[in-house]
Amino acid sequence: MRITLSIAALGLWSATAVAQQPVTIRLGHVGFPGSLFDISGQKFAQDVNQALKGRVEVRVFHSSQLGSDEQMIKGIRVSAPEMQIPSTVMSTVDQRYGVFEMPYLIVSRAHMKKAAESSAVQKALFDPLPARGIRVLGVWENGFRHITNNVRPIVRPEDLKGIKLRVPGGVWRVKMFQAYGANPSPMPFSEVYSALQSGVMDAQENPFSQIASAKFQEVQKFLSLTGHVYTPAFLIVSEDFWKKLPKDVQGTIVRIAQATGDFARAEGDRLDRELMSKLAPPMKSNEPDKEAFIKASAAVYEEFGKQVAGGTELIKTVQALR
Questions:
Q1: Helix, strand, or coil here: 204?
Q2: What span, in angstroms and rounded, lies between the C-alpha atoms of 193 and 198?
Q3: Confidence band for 19, pLDDT divided at 50, 70 and 90
């Protein structure tokens, strides 16, 4: 009888222990340690884990450990992983996210915050996603993008002619650099360093934090401060997974996700100011003719307006928030 009772008690203890295990959330991104993706992701995880201790545990996986952007964003629909921090690749989910690929559209971080909080933008971009298995919880930052290369300083769009330039997945970045005369090719972020080192690619474009954390300055000669696009990052979650969480847990996560957006933009500003001296030198920096780039971007705006339903109205909505 004692043995039977002991086994029963052990079974009850085991079931209780299992029931008390926190829900694990895998948060994946392609950035390296030190990138704004990782800084923001770690801050979010720390705050959620503290606020929901014993109930939820967020674990951050950097450096494409859970796959490329494209692989993770497909996996999100089946909760593998549960969360991701994508950026440009969101335009492959819904072409309307290409509005944030329009050159020189977002002029400041304050402007981006207004756009993220706009009810019209949220209705167009965020509200339709749960039906596709994805939910946006917060708008964070990737940042203002600049061009590095091994051929020449980029002052005007024509300086890009013939340059093999790596871009992230998403048709609008490709179209933009084609309009400038470059030869853009999408490539997973984890492969870019070796492609630049070997000469498979001449150039790439990214915010300072991505450039520095990936150590592209080791394999690039020129840094042109084009600031051609400000790309937001998005904290997304699997809708199926999200619906299984208690409402109070959902509320806490959303609150922290939105607060992390403000944190990410402040960190992005800090990194922009601090990293320049680490990037140039060794790279040689130059100021481009931004007006020439803006003028060369007109065709991309026109095509977006024609190809994407509601594209022109969405551009105007974001412009009006400046």
A1: strand
A2: 9
A3: low
Place of tokens 């222990």: 17
pTM of this prediction exceeds 0.90:
yes
**How far is Cα of residue 155 from the mean position of the Cα atoms in its chain?**
27
Q: Which of 311, 291, 313, 318 lies closest to 98 in space, CA to CA?
A: 311
Q: Which of 203, 197, 209 is nearest to 184 (CA)?
A: 203
Per the omega criterion (within 30 degrees of 0), is the bond before 81 cis? yes
Specify whether the CB–CB gap between 285 and 211 falls below 8 A.
Answer: no
Q: What are phi and psi of 41, to 5 degrees?
A: -60, -40
Please tell me the distance from the alpha carbon of residue 265 to that of residue 36, in angstroms, as a whole number: 9
Best CA proximity match to 242, nearest among 135, 146, 155, 320:
135
Which alpha helices (DSSP H) does the chain contain, by range?
Answer: 2-19, 36-51, 69-75, 109-117, 119-121, 171-180, 192-198, 208-213, 239-243, 247-279, 290-296, 298-307, 311-319
Q: Give the pLDDT confidence score for residue 3 in this predicted structure.
A: 40
What CA–CA distance (Å, rounded) separates 77 from 88?
18
Q: Give the model's pLDDT for residue 7.
A: 45
What would the mean pLDDT of 75-88 be, rounded to a whole number?
97
Is residue 150 within 8 A of residue 221, CB to CB? The reply is yes
